[in-house]
Design a protein that fits this description.
Elements lengths: L3 E8 L1 H18 L5 E7 L3 E4 L10 H6 L3 E4 L7 E3 L2 E9 L9 H17 L6 E2 L21 E3 L2 E11 L2 E9 L4 H8 L11 H4 L5 H13 L2
Parallel strand pairs: 1-2, 3-4
Antiparallel strand pairs: 2-6, 3-5, 6-10, 7-8, 8-9, 9-10
């Protein structure tokens, strides 16, 4: 299977969202019939809000004090702190997927690629169990849907989609580590570690740099 891979890079929140948008527009303009897959990081740390999410709940003083940027995503969903993580994005035509027209099934089809990728490095993921959305939660990783990827019942990867002119952009946050105290200050709600996990807790010997290398090797050799 042909995959165009955009190598891992660290950019600002605005630059990352612009690059995802540009890749989507490029795919539409060129009418590509294969996936474009990208890995990236964020500097400085950044809170991204879903396309339709109200951002009034955020304490801007906390963000300023911790040098945290803010950006709006093209995709829906709820807010995320992009800090000690790896983000993925992929762009492809709806027709590329077996069930591309069905949003839920398309999430699961794409997520299966991620499951296989993490299985190759010894981390067994599965789909999250859909739970009723609790509207008090503004932090994305506290909400579990059937499209999320979990490790032993704890959410590790949260993803979101947007669609344009017959193409899909899906991107998602792969938590390498997280600062519970900082998250609770930003989102003003308790972070339940029985619901959220990260790569560092799953495999403390796997560095973020090594994880990027392993994911890159899997994608480029797929």
């Amino acid at each position: 299977m042909k995959i165009k891979f955009v190598p891992y890079e660290v950019l600002t929140g605005a630059e990352n969202m612009q690059k995802d948008s540009d890749l989507l527009d490029f795919a539409i303009k060129e009418q590509i019939d294969y996936p474009i897959f990208r890995l990236y990081g964020w500097k400085p740390a950044c809170v991204s809000f879903g396309r339709n999410q109200n951002s009034d709940f955020i304490d801007k003083d906390v963000l300023k004090k911790n040098n945290i940027d803010v950006v709006k995503r093209l995709t829906g969903g709820r807010a995320l702190l992009h800090d000690n993580e790896i983000t993925y994005s992929c762009v492809f035509p709806v027709s590329y997927l077996t069930n591309g027209e069905n949003v839920t099934k398309s999430y699961m089809e794409i997520s299966q690629f991620l499951i296989n990728m993490f299985a190759s490095i010894g981390i067994a993921l599965d789909f999250g169990t859909t739970k009723p959305v609790n509207t008090k939660h503004d932090y994305c990783m506290l909400i579990s849907t059937g499209a999320d990827l979990c490790y032993r019942g704890k959410k590790l990867i949260g993803s979101a989609q947007c669609r344009k002119n017959g193409y899909i952009l899906q991107h998602g946050s792969i938590l390498y580590d997280f600062n519970r105290d900082l998250l609770e200050k930003i989102f003003k709600e308790p972070i339940n570690e029985s619901s959220v996990t990260c790569v560092r807790l799953i495999n403390p010997e796997l560095s973020r740099e090594k994880l990027v290398e392993l994911l890159t090797n899997y994608i480029t050799n797929y």
